[in-house]
Amino acid sequence: MTTVARRGWLGGTFDPIHNGHLDVARAAHASLGLERVTLVPSRIPPHRPQPFASATDRAEMARLAAVEPWLEVSTIELDGQGPSYTATTMDRLDALGVDLNSLVVITGADAFVGILSWHRVDELLDRVSFAVVSRPGHPAPALRGALPALASRMVSTDAWPGSSQPCIVLVDAPTAPVSSTMVRAAVAAGQSLSGLVPDAVEAYIAAHGLYGTLKELHE
Ligand code: ATP
Ligand code: MG
Questions:
Q1: Ligand 1 probe mutation, 31, 50, 135, 193, most atoms within 8 A of CB
Q2: Residue 196: which of 14, 18, 24 has the closest Cα?
Q3: Which of 27, 64, 178, 187 could form a disulfide with 173 if both were Cys (CB 3.0 to 4.6 A apart)?
């Protein structure tokens, strides 16, 4: 029996989560008819350059942003050991009894263009479907040309769900032209975050003094 993917899995550093991330979740939710989308803040191991905010703060901001009833946050990667490889997270979900056919991993097109260097990529693409959402300056349909070796697996949203094999769905929807880098720079410059992050996330950043020292650090 074929299981249709009904749960989206959106990983990211979320340092902090912003309106572009939420637009990605909404685009995948609406165009693939997903029942829920899980936001998954990633763990950066100690020997790598660290995010500016702690794992606790990044997860809490994601929770504050997950207002829609179909949005939720998982700390599975923060609670684990080592770096957050999607392949190893899929191993863990599989071991927990999650049917990977019920899942679709969501990324922005700028992130997916580097997929061929991901840990255990061949196996990963055979195991789980991906939904790749356009990012301003990175249209998802351009991935057919950028990743010719994977083009035969790529389908547009109107062909979803088309087959029982994991595929790569290209979701060409608009998302806010926001990045976490832009948000951190706005905080450091003392600018309003209105339109960049939800109000509750802006309030959390202010209350916890997050990102405010960037200016001094960069001077
Ligand atoms: P940074 O500026 O620190 O690199 P970021 O804004 O790129 O942060 P990430 O946490 O690195 O955010 O992104 C998580 C996922 O969300 C990635 O798959 C990325 O491609 C996607 N994404 C982030 N912002 C957007 C956006 N505005 N439109 C579409 N996809 C996005
Ligand atoms: Mg990024």
A1: 135
A2: 18
A3: 27
- Ligand 1 touching residue 15 (CB < 6 A): yes
Q: How far apart are CA 213 and CA 154, in angstroms?
A: 43
Neighbouring-strand partners of residue 112? none
Provide the 8-state DSSP code for 155.
Answer: E
> Which residue type occupies 197?
V
Strand order in the sheet with 103-108: 71-73, 36-41, 7-12, 103-108, 129-133, 168-171, 154-156
Instruction: Give the separation between CA 110 and CA 69, rounded to whole angstroms.
Output: 27
Distances (CA, A) of 217 to 46, 210, 212: 20, 13, 10
Residue 116 has what DSSP assignment? Answer: G
The model's pLDDT over 132-187, given as tens digits with 9 standing for 90+, comes to: 999 999 999 999 999 999 999 999 999 988 777 899 999 999 999 999 999 999 99
The partner residues of 89 in beta bridges, in order of sequence, read: none
Which amino acid residue places its CA nearest to atom 8 of ligand 1? 180
Query: What is the fold, at CATH topology level, of the domain defined by 7-176?
Result: Rossmann fold (3.40.50)
Residues in the chain: 219
* Residue 144 structure tokens: 């057919």
Token pair 């070796």 is found at 149
Give the span between the Cα atoms of 91 and 74, in whole angstroms. 15
Q: Where are the domains of the chain?
A: 7-176
